[in-house]
Amino acid sequence: MKILNLNEGSFPINFSIKLETVDVPNIGKLQKDLLVEAEIQKISKDLYRCAGHMKGHFNDTCQNCLKDTEVEVSNNINVTIKDLTEMHHDSSEQDQTHYQDLEYFDLHRFIEEELAIIYPDIVKCSENCLEGEISRGKEKNLPFKKIRDLIE
After folding, report:
1. 46 near 54, Cβ under 8 Å?
2. Which of 105, 43, 49 has the alpha carbon at shortest distance from 81?
3. Could you tell me the pTM of the whole model?
4. Where are the domains of the chain?
């Protein structure tokens, strides 16, 4: 666990982290290290911006055919960071805002929350997994097709 005090120190804070394990529910198992390279900049008092990149490989299950599937997560991070006390008073319309205690900012928790957001909702082994079987199944489910063919 890496704790930073964002209320003190010099900025920007550059970091490069390799995580061997992540504790995020409902995602696959991390196969290789999760690599995170980012920079935290101070915009104003109690307002920070984190920009960088996250990349990792996971083993998950295809939701159609249930085969083991490799999922590559590679995404940019562009998040505003605000103090936890601002959460209920924040009137900004920003989509990507992370709230945490700025004096005890848990970098691993931040990374795990970002991973949970960018991890795919639907995992498939291929784009057309089971589509061929579904189209063959549609023809089987047309019991009156032969009668229709005879009438025409």
Report:
1. no
2. 49
3. 0.76
4. 3-127
Which secondary-structure segment (H or E) carries 138? helix 131-140
Burial 111-140, CB ≥16 within 10 A → b, else e: bbebbeeebeeebbbeeebeeeeeeeeeee
Please, are residues 33 and 17 in contact by the beta-carbon 8 Å criterion?
A: no
152 residues of the chain, pLDDT tens digit each: 688 889 888 899 999 999 999 999 989 999 989 999 999 999 988 889 999 999 999 999 999 899 999 999 999 999 999 988 877 776 666 668 888 999 999 999 999 999 999 999 999 998 888 775 544 444 555 666 666 666 76
